[in-house]
Please model this.
Amino acid sequence: MPELPEIEALRVFLDENLVGKEIARVLPLAVSVLKTYDPPLTALEGGTVTGIARRGKFLDIGVGPLHLITHLARAGWLHWKESFPAAPPRPGKGPLALRTVLTGGDGFDLTEAGTTKRLAVYLVHDPGEVPGIARLGPDPLDASFDRDAFAALLAGERRRVKGALRDQSLIAGIGNAYSDEILHAARMSPFTLAASLTDDDITRLYTALRTTLRDAVARSSGVAAGKLKAEKKSGLRVHGRTGEPCPVCGDIVREVSFSDFSLQYCPTCQTGGRPLADRRLSRLLK
Model:
């Protein structure tokens, strides 16, 4: 799933390649992709792109008074095109979900792999009209998001720290992959209770959060949209690397699977050398 660093890189890419250009047409090609109907997508025709913003994991394309907003979900992506085939695409065929064509002939496609279709597109007057944006917590790379602000968010949290980091209403933009990376950098078990964190733990976790995200954004800077997925994968230390050696200590990266996601961690770096039981509500094996 694209997370804050990849969406930020897409924002920068589109800011350089899309702002100032005129939209010729926007074609929804998957039944499930469009979540709003008023105003219609035809309202974008002839409009000029005025700005690009990132809101957590949402990408916001400003076109005059309107906002074309997308959430790429787990398997969505944006593909920049210098030109398009003359024949119009067939709706419902393949991964293509939405096509945006500019008057110059270039533009972008939104695609979604797999059979579970969660990619979402909204056209609104105010980004706050999008339910997912309205409930977003603070952006972790914002200048105001300091260590004390982070501590205040965690105060009274009774969840495990992995779940807290992934909660978009608590902190915007962090998903499954970067929460694994942050916890590895902090040398902290994903099942540590947030309420049990000491002041030193919070400082260590905050430092790992900011460093991990900033480094990922820096690695993605200047990378073309089509290469961002590969860049993300190459920079991950534990997430998606089950069975490989930890780059810090050499122990084998392990996994805990749930019904709809899995997490990866290093026992030596994060759990005192003990593997976590691979089942829901995992506890340390005795």
